[in-house]
Amino acid sequence: MNWIQVGVLDDIPRQGSRVIKTASGEIALFRSVDDKVFALNNRCPHKGGPLAQGIVHGTRVTCPFHNWVIDLESGSAVAPDTGCAHRHEVRIAHDVVFIEVEAGECQA
Amino acid sequence: MGINKMRLVVIGNGMAGIRTIEELLKMSTDEFDITVFGSEPQPNYNRILLSPVLSGEMPFKDTILNDWAWYEDNHITLHTGKTVVKIDRKRCTVETDDGLVVPYDRLLIATGSNPIMLPVPGIDLPGVMGYRSIADVGKMLSKPGKGTRAVVIGGGLLGLEAANGLSLRGMDVSVVHLCDWPMERQLDKVGGGLLQKELEKRGLKFYMTRQTEAILGETEVTGLRFKDGEEIPADLVIMSAGIRPNIALAQLAGIHCERGIVVSDTMQTFDPKIYSVGECVQHRGQTYGLVAPLFEQAKVAANHLARYGAMRYEGSSVSTKLKVTGIDLFSAGEFTAGDEDEELLLHDSARGVYKKLVLRDNKLRGAVMYGDTVDGPWYFQMMRDATDVSEMREHLLFGQVHIGDSGLGGVSSVANMPDTAEICGCNGVCKGAIVSAIVDKKLFTLDEVRAHTKASASCGSCTGLVEAVLANTLGGDYSARPSKKAICACTESSHQDVPQAIRDLGLKNIPDLMQAMQWKTPDGCHACRPALNYYLLAAWPGEYVDDSRSRFINERVHANIQKDGTYSVIPRIWGGMTSPAELRSIAEIAERYEVPTVHITGGQRIGLYGITKENLPKMWGELVDAGFVSGHAYGKSLRTVKTCVGSEWCRFGTQDSTGLGIQVEKMTWGSWTPHKFKIAVSGCPRNCAEATIKDFGVVCVESGYEIHVGGNGGVKVRVTDFLCKVETEAEVLEYCGAFMQMYREEAHYLDRTAPWIERVGLAHIKQHVVDDAVTRAALYERFLESQRYSQDDPWKERAEGKDAHEYATLATIE
Predict the structure, then answer these.
(1) Partner B contacted by A83 (CB < 8 A)
(2) CA–CA min distance A17, chain B (Å)
(3) CA of A107 vs chain B CAs: smallest distance (Å)
(4) What pLDDT score was predicted for residue B329?
């Protein structure tokens, strides 16, 4: 387990997202309307669009490039589209946000 | 929980009944114990694809809509091959022919219809059958193809499809029909004549204006005798003289029936526990035999069964398309002109093209098309929208000329298009891919085709073509876009409903709006939230606080996202007039930020491309210091006012087009609109500023200013409509503000001015902006009022620190 502190909950706008830079590419942190936080690689499985720039709705984000909808809990594209963005574990303790960066490709 | 579940029994395992269950499952998967009775032994199949099965163009298994596993997965008890013979409304039970009794809390009758069997001698002979089910098709195909003489009684839609199918199987086919021409309920005499000629060319024989007196034969059918005494031989007789709602069971149970089972707008029969949908119902005096209305009914019935109680079925207008490969035919509405109606006709016998449009009070009432049907869905849409077509009368017959100009070069007949023809240029989707998605994935609607193939899901200009492919593949039964369409799957509300509710209920933010209009999702989606944000912003200027979370990325960060995730920065250059000092500032800033691409845009601006998000606020700060404001090249907003140099320099110039353009831009910049809005001012009719392909275009002439509206370049070029001529610059400003405000208040979000004008009609706009000075002044006033709050430069605000989190990385992990 290697939890890394990346900020506090209020750094991420509700229904919004922030970007974390890592050696292996960007990770997008999303915060849903009911304050759940998710982390996915910042690349849409379709054409690599930056998911962090999309509109967050429910526990989904819509890619700004071609409107693919990605489920934040699993990282999978919502049917009928297929594919997924690699997800990372997130934990929140006393409003501090930690993530565990796991290298690797998406496991849908 | 099983004990608390409602028991729903569905009589009829066909398309209407099962569609209702599917709609119900979408809303509440857990509330019902569902039992389905079907008298046919198969699971639910696509009855409208019987004709391709008959002709051998499709195997039966491809028509199955819900396989056995579907019923199992959804815990639906299915009884096939069982016929319900009794409904006991007192005990709330149904009883089958083999004695099974099942209780219900809610009952759905979807018994469909039966073919009308003419009351003539010989009707019971073997070899005489209807054309309604896969069993009928099986019986027809049990005869050898070669040498069998088939007679189809009834030259309507279904009869001709059957005749064509049997003929493709090698049979010798005749069609007997009462009227002068085939499909008289969908076609006029000329159209019907063309169709008959084409079918005769394919080998069908027609016996027109003949009434069948008797079917001949001892042990099986051998022929047919007409009233006039003529006899023709036959080994197979198909009755296709119409369908009759199957109401026997309902009548027996004492449920009020006329021609069909009478239902209300909530699809309820006179017994409130009993609902009915499909071909068996009679709603507001109408019965329906096509699938699109049935699906609309299913949606409403499910909504009420699930106790949402939010929808009403208000009847459907239907369009028809014959499912015979290679024949393009379309019909909708009233196609016989009455006394008050006018007809527009086009008949090119060499090309085999015939079009007739029927108008009343400048509105389309009906259309018949043969040979070239690409514009069918367009006409149909205008019919249902009751669009005033007076301004486009001259061009109406020639169609929505630029439909789908994604390299198709004016192909007008979808049926004759090869499978490799590209329909959607944005997403590279060919006709063949759309057709196989429709067939393999069992798609019925435009939205489904969009979801699965992406065809017409980007710029939308090929929507008409995709609908035509859909119509062509599914025949008359495709489900057309309803005229009042829900904004997205989160809601039943349409783009008409929302602005109305905002005004009527005084709603001032998105959560309240969603709650008042019963949104089905907690916070909407990428499609509805930007729309709601826009409508609220337009309704309450100065009061509504823009919700940046409901803005598409470009509008949220005030720059245009590029394919590599960087952004473009395009400062405003008023009226396209610049100076060496301005150019020097831009050049220096571009060098300082090592901008990889500097490009002159089509709207006379300078675009700087490849800027990282982190650099945006700093760069804007420098641009602001040099005197620039945001160019809004990223927004659904006023983009640019393009001008020529006009009378100041040009020897042809009639007015100061540049000066006027700058005034117009100073007045309109910063305004949010339903879609992007472009303006141009040309100094003379040579029109160097291309004002006639802009949303609002001014063409200066010696005596004043011509105002043109509703043009656009881009995928679907549309030339403006002439609005009016005015004499002064002040009037240009007033008309411009009034027109923009009307567009802002009336258009649906993401409609550009062209589709808005095409929907409401230019006459409607003239009435408010030109004819009525009071309305115009009020519109102009509202525009200026709204502008008071929208001309704070968003770049300046962000250079000073607003929304800093949008531009900064949260953390960097090594």
Answers:
(1) no
(2) 9
(3) 22
(4) 82
Do β-strands A69-71 and A25-31 pair in parallel, antiparallel, or remain unpaired? unpaired
What number of CA atoms fall less than 13 Å from residue B659's CA on the CB side? 11
Domains of chain A: 3-100 (2.102.10.10)
Residue B250 clears pLDDT 80, i.e. is over it: yes
Crossing angle of helices B446-453/B431-440, nearest 10°? 110
Q: How confident is the model at residue B405 (pLDDT cuts 50, 70, 90)?
A: very low
Smallest Cα–Cα separation from B672: which of B763, B775, B547? B547
| DSSP annotation of B257 | B
Q: Is A35 on the interface with B (CB under 8 A)?
A: no
Mean pLDDT of all residues belonging to chain B: 89
Q: Nearest by CB to B526, which of A50, A57, A101?
A: A57
Contact B723, B716 (CB under 8 A): no
Q: For B611, phi and psi rounded to 5 degrees?
A: -90, 130
- Measured CA to CA, the distance from residue B580 to residue A25 in angstroms comes to 42
A62 at B interface, C-beta within 8 A: yes
Who among B441, B457, B813 is closest to A101 (CB)?
Answer: B813
Query: In which order are the strands placed within the sheet that holds B149-153?
Result: B128-129, B236-239, B149-153, B172-176, B205-207
B290 burial type by CB count under 10 A (0-12 exposed, 13-18 middle, 19+ buried): buried
Helices B580-592, B616-625: crossing angle, 10 deg rounding: 160
DSSP secondary structure string, B519-537? -SSSS--TTHHHHHHHHHH
Lowest mean pLDDT among B159-168, B465-474, B609-618, B630-639: B465-474
CB B526 within 8 A of CB A67: yes
